[in-house]
Amino acid sequence: MELEKMYETLGVSEAVYAYGEKVLTNLEARFKSIDQTAEYNQAKVLSAMQQNRVNATHFAATTGYGYNDEGRDTLERVYAAVFHTEAALVRPQITCGTHALTVALSANLLPGDELLSPVGAPYDTLEEVIGIRESKCSLREYGVTYAQADLLSDGGFDYPAIRASINERTKLITIQRSKGYATRPSFSVAQIGELIAFCKSVKPDVKVMVDNCYGEFVEPLEPSDLGADMVVGSLIKNPGGGLAPIGGYICGTQECVERCAYRLSAPGLGQEVGANLGLMPAFYQGLFLAPTVTAGALKGSVFAANIYEGLGFPCVPNASEDRHDIIQAVTLGSREAMVAFCKGIQAAAPVDSYVTPEPWAMPGYDSDVIMAAGAFVQGSSIELSADGPIRPPYAVYFQGGLTWYHAKLGILMSLQKLVEAGIVKPP
Ligand SMILES: *Cc1c(COP(=O)(O)O)cnc(C)c1O
């Protein structure tokens, strides 16, 4: 068959290809449900663009101060319409997800206030932002304290502990939707909604921010539909659709977003300044594609779990679980297996496919780390990528894929390399 031959050209053997096809026959219903969510979210994005009368003049570049930048202002209205919020801040001046979260936190917390995470430890990079790990310019240095309620051992919310952690100084509650690179489960939007409702029942005027990274468009609803005052994320993950070369977003109440704008630029200037530098076509078109790009990445993660669980490797989420983000963890059990897996992902890339990933000592990590990515946008993790620290249980975190077919090839190539290394018997 032509297709099989093409996969052979790319380096996937007949046996690996056939195993992939066998696994796929059981995934029809799963894929259909992913497609239905994508269809709904596509309509949501389209409707937001139509309501805001997006037109070609909005794609023009602005420079300097960027006063009267209709393209930028309309894009922010489109994001607000998609996330059903009063306001949005969406800009290339927000350099990454951590920056967006930092702006949202530091704009809405003042000296003497307390930040609470009711879902255990936050994402690695936020430890320095908050001051859990000492850092210059952390919130802690500015007199903002931090409290944390850990999750129960089954990954559930510890409601009594959360209630006990909310006090008169608790100003903002931060909820991370995706597990990121932790071992806890990711939360559904419904679970986040319940947690928000609980926190607000304990303290009605408390603000809730959701770190929405990796979760956008995975479900029909977003946390802002269920009471979050702010949802925050990166444009080089899901909502940039693979086309945004930089950027972050904060969608939320007028009150919260206005403060974010003053924090990002300067008090008094706010949302009025910030040239778009010619990035509007990528931001609009990326958002337009984001629902289907996210669906492709989701299919890849479901496929990976089914491929690897079928070979005896534990997967989080497991082969049959519902998805709340695009990240798939596969426990491979050895350094050699992690290296082989990442070699396969790299070999499947459209960019840098000829390079060989090797474990490396990275700042901030206590063990070597291996990373595979051949991306059009540096570090973009909506593009096919895999990484993980080289230490027990030797798990790789796999995510992205701008198209389902690319994600599929990446997973088949990873298996091919495991077979070639003699770690997995030809299936
Ligand atoms: C990626 C990520 C971040 C940080 O985003 P960067 O763009 O890497 O700075 C924060 N939180 C979560 C859950 C993430 O997945």
Task: Provide the fold topology.
Layout: H1 2-10, H2 14-25, H3 28-51, H4 70-83, E1 87-91, H5 97-108, E2 114-117, H6 124-130, E3 145-148, H7 159-165, E4 170-176, H8 189-202, E5 207-211, E6 230-234, E7 248-252, H9 254-264, H10 280-309, E8 315-316, E9 328-331, H11 335-347, E10 360-361, E11 368-373, E12 385-389, E13 395-399, H12 404-420
This protein binds pyridoxal-5'-phosphate.
Task: Describe this protein's structure.
By secondary structure, the protein is of the alpha/beta class. The protein contains 12 helices and 13 strands. The strands form 2 sheets. Strands 1-7-6-5-4-2-3 form a 7-stranded mixed sheet, sandwiched between helices. It has a 6-stranded antiparallel sheet with strand order 8-9-13-12-11-10, with helices on one face. The longest helix is centred in the C-terminal third of the chain and has 30 residues, at 280-309. The protein starts with a helix and ends in a 7-residue tail after the last helix. The structure holds pyridoxal-5'-phosphate. Pyridoxal-5'-phosphate binds next to helix 5.
Enumerate how many helices there are, as a single number: 12
Helix content: 25-40%
Largest sheet: 7 strands, mixed
Order of helices and strands: HHHHEHEHEHEHEEEHHEEHEEEEH
Given helix and strand content, the structural type is alpha/beta
Feature tags:
alpha/beta, 6-stranded antiparallel sheet, binds pyridoxal-5'-phosphate, 40% helix, 427 residues, 14% strand, 13 strands, globular, 7-stranded mixed sheet, single chain
